Amino acid sequence: MDLVLNLADEYVLDAVWARLLPASRPLPGYTAQESLLNKTAHGAQSTLGQITGADKLESWLPRDNIVRQTISLYVITYIGILLLYFSMAGASYYFLFNKELMKHPRFLKNQIKLEIQSSLRAFPWLDLMTVPWFVAEVRGYSRVYEKWDEYGLLYLILSVPFFLLFTDACIYWVHRIEHHPALYKHVHKPHHKWIIPTPFASHAFHPVDGYAQSLPYHIFPVLFPLNKYLFLGLFGFVNMWSIMIHDSDMITGTGWEHIINGPAHHTLHHLYFTCNYGQYTTMCDRFGGSFREPLPEDDPLKSITETPAETRAHVKQEKEE
Asked: Which residues form a coiled coil (predicted)?
């Protein structure tokens, strides 16, 4: 995140902070040694925008001040998740989601609105819990590295499947533990309100639920070296994957459903609750005895085409009451 923070400071936040908390007088460039709380990987001043004049306003909070970094990262993360959520979930909904599923008897009244509202309630708290990890990374408390060849090309390539398998296994167990009766109704049940989810349900969860399932993404670069550019790419990918598997698609017969935990698997999880806890692969579900293979007869669209309209309306009315 230091890459993102540097760019944000360079082009936006330096000016914002200077206006919000201006120094008592215009300052020339300052050095890392002159700044406060300087133990950080995020430099006091980028060489790209080095101040040379004496008439540029500065904030009395330098770039590497931990308070400024925390607030800046909170705002950046919040804006980022909003942009990602509405752009990717919106695109998935408009171009991929089968609108016929909205006729399903277990599709709630105003469900899309409710999913979005649930997500918007979760984001501020999820952001608050996540930002300390980003601050720690920016201040050098992780093993992210910048040079592509620092650990060799082979490790760079292998770190991608390593990251995915590590987080897949960890999320499987976090997810499965959340289904324990002692935790389920308090933490995970809000996400299972959406029996027939849309892409907007991807982030419609209790904040603690979302944070718990995101922890492996932050723990990995603390334990293992990971290129910082790769980390940003992978972090974006996993968020897009979470959106994609919530489109209730039940495409089967491709052969990949034996390996990849895709939308069909996660649709079954929302329908039946006790299967397919994995995130990317079926590996942990197979080892844990929770794998359920998606079959054509599992398609929720069959409940629409094979159920009389009056029965659907009756069931839907009962659900709403």
From this structure: none
Mean pLDDT of 29-33: 44
Residues 215, 303 within the same domain: yes
Bridge partners, residue 144, by sequence: 226
Structural domain range at position 255: 87-315
Q: Judge if 226 and 102 occupy the same domain.
A: yes
Residues 56, 98, single domain; the answer is no
Rg of the chain (C-alpha set)? 23
What's the rounded mean pLDDT across residues 230-257?
88
Asked if residue 96 belongs to a domain, the reply is: yes
15-30 pLDDT tens trace: 999 999 998 755 444 4
- One domain, residues 237 and 148: yes
Q: In this structure, which long-range contacts are made by residues 272-278, counting pairs with CB atoms below 8 Å and at least 24 apart in sequence? A: 273/179, 273/192, 274/179, 277/172, 277/175, 277/176, 277/179, 278/168, 278/171, 278/172, 278/175
> Does the model's pTM come out above 0.70?
yes
- Count H helices, E strands: the chain? 13, 2
For residue 281, what is the DSSP state? Answer: B
Tell me what percent of the residues of the chain surpass a pLDDT of 70: 85
Tell me what the pLDDT averaged over the chain comes to: 86
